[in-house]
Amino acid sequence: MSQQCMTPKNRLREFLPSNLSEFDSFLNQVLGPNGLRAGQTPAGLWEDDGSYHIELDVPGVTRENVEITLDKGTLSISAERKHEESEATRKGWREERFYGKVTRAFSLPDTIDSESVSAELTDGVLRVTIAKSPAAQPKKIDVK
């Protein structure tokens, strides 16, 4: 009876020189498999006419475990996904899901209205909206 490996494997890596495979493994440890540093979550940033928007993927995080602060033009977000006790005690072969704290900081332009920051967490996506200050809004001037 043959024994099979339970770990997913990329067949292409079997043909790479061993030192390249080791380097790839090192980069995955430092940067993570998608190129982000460990503890960093992907973000989307954009603006429309009246607001700036930031979205972060934070699956498994509850509202109680999210902290957002705005200080001197820097918006800081931290979120923590806690290990459930039942998951911590089970004996698994591999755990690819992230547990722990992630933090991101964003430098915002001077044109924000710091009193109008709002945040919403829905389906594992944190959405932060920051209104632009009224002075930053384009003003239409009527010609008489």
TrEMBL record:
Gene3D superfamilies: 2.60.40.790. This is Spore protein SP21. Coiled coil: none annotated. Belongs to the small heat shock protein (HSP20) family. Residues 34-144 form the SHSP domain. It comes from Bythopirellula goksoeyrii. InterPro entries: A-crystallin/Hsp20_dom (IPR002068), HSP20-like_chaperone (IPR008978), Small_HSP (IPR031107). SUPFAM superfamilies: HSP20-like chaperones (SSF49764).
